[in-house]
Specification:
Number of strands: 10
Radius of gyration: 17 Å
Helix content: 40-55%
Distance between the termini: 36 Å
Shape: globular
Oligomer: single chain
Strand order of the largest sheet: 1-2-3-4-5-6-7-10
């Protein structure tokens, strides 16, 4: 066990060194997915590595939040299935705001079924995610079929869609991080489909410079909540763990002034990135 942990730690350290050696702009020429290129370009234009998790309860709240934080973010993370009043009009409003403020839309659906099922889930159902999301994500538990099923549905969309694989999670006791070999297997699956898979949900550098890493559980202070979520700071996640994009939820959408809070997180996240590039 100790030997395995040392090997994993050494691999993470090597990954971090590789990440540090290449800036966002340089990686535009390394990533293979058009969505990944587009996201990196947005990040450079806006000097933002911030994604806001819009975990709100109504469509009106979602639209208002997206408009408020839009200038500060590179990506808006949604949970369409949380909104009881989600309609096609909601998706149109979100897409319009993404165009207005220059950000991508990431639907945090966490697909986790056989290929044929996830293909239908992405394309059909009440949310018709393929019509409006730029990015979706999936667990690796079902095997490579989950990637191919999502790729199948994405191929029929009128715009390019990229996939993030969950190789690690931020919640206490999660099996994605705890099961030996799981994260490595997810990376292996992603590398076999790197024209569609744009990166990972993970706690730090994963997969090399050809992949982007988004890390959830970020606040200005280290801590946790009663349901097992653990929080790290932008400086730690970007500067030490070598992630690429911070995902912030409650620290922004529960703030008295979400726009002001988003700008502060954007500033701290970008400063951490610039410092690691020194």
């Amino acid at each position: 066990k100790d030997a395995g942990e040392r090997v994993k730690a050494a691999e993470k350290e090597a990954e971090s060194r590789r990440k540090k050696e290449m800036e966002y702009g340089e990686r535009v020429g390394v990533v293979k997915s058009g969505v990944a290129k587009r996201l990196l370009e947005v990040m450079m234009r806006k000097k933002s590595n911030l994604s806001v998790a819009a975990d709100v309860g109504t469509a009106a709240e979602l639209v208002a939040l997206a408009d408020a934080v839009g200038p500060a973010i590179c990506c808006l993370k949604t949970h369409a299935d949380v909104l009881a009043d989600w309609t096609e009009e909601t998706s149109k409003e979100v897409k319009a705001l993404a165009k207005k403020h220059d950000f991508l839309v990431f639907e945090d659906r966490k697909f986790a079924d056989i290929g044929s099922t996830v293909s239908m889930q992405l394309e059909s159902g009440p949310h018709k995610i393929a019509q409006w999301a730029d990015i979706v994500n999936a667990h690796g538990v079902p095997g490579p079929g989950v990637i191919e099923g999502l790729r199948d549905a994405a191929s029929r969309a009128d715009h390019e869609i990229g996939l993030l694989m969950l190789s690690e999670m931020s919640s206490k006791g999660n099996l994605a991080t705890g099961l030996p070999g799981y994260s490595a297997k997810v990376v292996e699956m992603a590398k076999a489909a790197d024209d569609f898979v744009i990166g990972f949900i993970a706690m730090g550098a994963t997969g090399g410079n050809e992949f982007l890493v988004m890390t959830p559980g970020v606040q200005l202070d280290v801590g946790g909540d009663a349901l097992g979520q653990r929080y790290n700071t932008p400086s730690k996640v970007i500067g030490e763990q070598m992630s690429d994009i911070i995902i912030v939820g409650r620290g922004i959408y529960k703030a008295a002034d979400p726009a002001k809070a988003a700008e502060e997180y954007r500033k701290q996240g970008w400063e951490a990135y610039e410092k690691r590039c020194e």
